[in-house]
Amino acid sequence: MELTEKMQAFVMHCGEMGSRWGFNRTIGQMYALLLLSEQPLSANELSQTLHISRGNVSMGIKELNSWQLIATKHKPGDRKEYYQPAGTIWQMANRVFEQRQKREIDPTLSLLRDNLLDEPNNQAEQYAQQRMLEIHDLLEMITQWAGELQRLSPEKLSTLMKLGAGVTKMLDMRDKFTGKSTPES
């Protein structure tokens, strides 16, 4: 596959963003390349286009499969496997969120729950538990909210996102009328 300058810039950027999404640079580049390709790509095509070893491609494919971000395709008369993104961009975003929740948020909630079950031994532990409870409650709220968002259709989610600034303005107006102060105030 031949990459234009714009495509190359996107692929490289996604590689740099990969670590922020929860995987390494090479995997970010591989996924970006698959997103931009009209046709499924073989491991050899990924390797040649990105100038990375076949071993790195194989490990990247395993990781992308574990995140459920790619689908494997076969071409009639060809023994090679070809890869393409699994689903829409919205589905990809949901899968990344789900995987990050499993890998990051769920273990944190589990640790917090365990710590909150124990009785504090002193004032310092009591204060620490109160802070952990606040973190727990925030993560629970985010998890519930994200679950609700994931159940929305892409159309409804898009509409909700477009409403974001308007909803914030309405809440600010409500606070002015009710005399509530917001944390930003």
UniProtKB/TrEMBL annotation:
PANTHER family (UniProt xref): HTH-TYPE TRANSCRIPTIONAL REGULATOR MJ1563-RELATED
Organism: Pseudoalteromonas ruthenica
Domain spans labelled HTH marR-type: 22-80
Alphabetized GO MF terms: DNA binding; DNA-binding transcription factor activity
Organismal lineage: Bacteria, Pseudomonadati, Pseudomonadota, Gammaproteobacteria, Alteromonadales
Cell membrane as UniProt keyword: no
Pfam families per UniProt: MarR_2 (PF12802)
UniProt KW keywords: DNA-binding, Transcription, Transcription regulation
Transcription listed as a keyword: yes
Family membership: Belongs to the GbsR family.
Name by which UniProt lists this protein: HTH-type transcriptional regulator
Domain of life of the organism encoding this protein: Bacteria
